[in-house]
Amino acid sequence: MSRHVMVGLSGGVDSAVSAWLLKEQGYRVSGLFMQNWAEDESGYCTAAEDYQSARAVAEELGIPLHRVDFSVEYRERVFASFLRQLREGKTPNPDVLCNREIKFQPFVEHARRLGAELVATGHYADLAASAEGPLLLRAADENKDQSYFLAGVPRAQFENVLFPLGGLSKPEVRALAARAGLPNHRRKDSTGICFIGERPFADFLAEHLPPDPGPIESDQGEVLGEHRGLQFFTLGQRKGVGIGGRRGASEAPWYVVDKDLARKALIVSQQAEHPRLFRRTLHTGRFHWLAPLCAREPLFGRLRHRQPLAACRLVETADGALRVEFEQAQRAVTPGQYLALYQGRTCLGCGEIAAAGPA
User: Fold this and answer.
1) pLDDT, tens digit, for every residue of 209-242?
2) Are 151 and 136 within 8 A, CB to CB?
3) Is residue 294 flagged as an active site residue?
4) Across-strand partners of 337?
């Protein structure tokens, strides 16, 4: 009898093609739609629309579709941490937490309760076997590679996981979806995370975090105005700084170049490449290793999804934390985001950025 695989069907084209490919390969395929955020009245969360799309795909493929609500787990394990880090002045990445806390733990456990031997998702990543366990690899399509978002998942949870899209490019996936006659083959890719959707980010945060105002200062120390809270800003941000035209100043846009947490001051400049935005070193919290470091191979780091890999080296480790130095200074090294490390195609793991070195 063919092996039973449960595919996380999100309603998007990537998971739909994953299910189609696995069925073509002879697996017994089922789908599982995960609702991770409770619907609200704003209309920004598209869970109902996503479910209808997933159901249409399941009907076209002739596979059963199960539905499960993980919104309570999401609020407790992901959203609460997201808000806490914002209050601390950080810029968290909930997608890394969602994969670690939801998509590769409750999802896998629920799939097994439904009788599945394997699970699969539409992530652009790959896996390889090794004597120590699965290795997480970068996808063939560098522009879509999502290994960065998966780098925090415990290694053991990649056992019996399939990533059917690891060797494909996005145009190839779109072409396969059209050839297979999948009903969502023209559906546009989702952007952002469900609980934010396309809504204004600052307006959404204001519903959950109280204002905590402080001064907006130029890089020369001039007070330019007042902000409503450092949690609404991230390093390198250009839009929404809230500074109008000023007498004697150019009309160039203002960029967030630093945050002074002690004084609640937002530091801005009209230099897009301001020196305070660039750092060569950073410190992580406890690093989550997926594979051992090889001293003979060059090491590369990635600070955000789709950022080009940057050559770096470990200069210090203590209590599981890392101090990393880059060959070239990196723009907007942001506490709360994650540093993922790579050697070749292998993702070694990730650690939350705790602090950046001197500018």
Assistant:
1) 899 999 999 999 999 999 999 998 999 999 888 7
2) yes
3) no
4) 335
> Which phi and psi angles does 314 have, rounded to 5°?
-85, 125
Strand partners, 223: 217
Cβ contacts of 41 within 8 Å, gap of 6 or more: none
Q: 171: Cβ–Cβ under 8 A, 6 or more apart, which residues? A: none
Is residue 66 within 8 A of residue 25, CB to CB? The reply is no
pLDDT tens across 152-191, in order?
A: 999 999 999 999 999 999 999 999 999 999 999 888 876 6
Residues in binding site for ATP: 8-15, 34, 122
Q: What are phi and psi of 312, to 5 degrees?
A: -155, 175
Write down the pLDDT at residue 115. Answer: 95
Residue tagged active-site, from 194, 312, 347, 350: 194
Cα–Cα distance between 250 and 14 in angstroms, integer? 45
The alpha carbon dihedral of 342, 345, 347, 348 has a sign of negative
Active-site choice (45, 98, 312, 350): 98
Quick one: 289 exposed, middle or buried, by C-beta within 10 A (0-12, 13-18, 19+)?
A: middle
**pLDDT given at position 64:** 97
| Phi, psi of 191, deg, nearest 5 | -125, 145
Q: In the prediction, which pLDDT does 48 show? A: 81
- The residue extents of the domains of the chain are 4-179, 210-272, 277-356
Contact 37, 71 (CB under 8 A): yes
- For the domain covering 277-356, report its CATH number: 2.40.30.10
Contact 218/268 with Cβ under 8 angstroms? yes
Please give, one letter per residue, the 3-state secondary structure of 119-173: EECCCCCEEECCCCCCEEECCCCCCCCCHHHHCCCCHHHHCCEECCCCCCCHHHH
Fold agreement (4-179, 210-272): no
Task: Just give the CATH number of 210-272.
Answer: 2.30.30.280
Is-catalytic flag, 45? no
Query: What residues are designated binding site?
Result: 8-15, 34, 122
Low-confidence ranges of the chain (pLDDT < 50): 41
Tell me how many degrees the CA angle 221-257-275 measures, rounded to the nearest 5.
Answer: 90
At 289, list the tokens: 């290793």
Q: What CATH number belongs to 4-179?
A: 3.40.50.620
Distance CA(79)–CA(73), nearest Å, equals 9
DSSP conformation class of 156? G
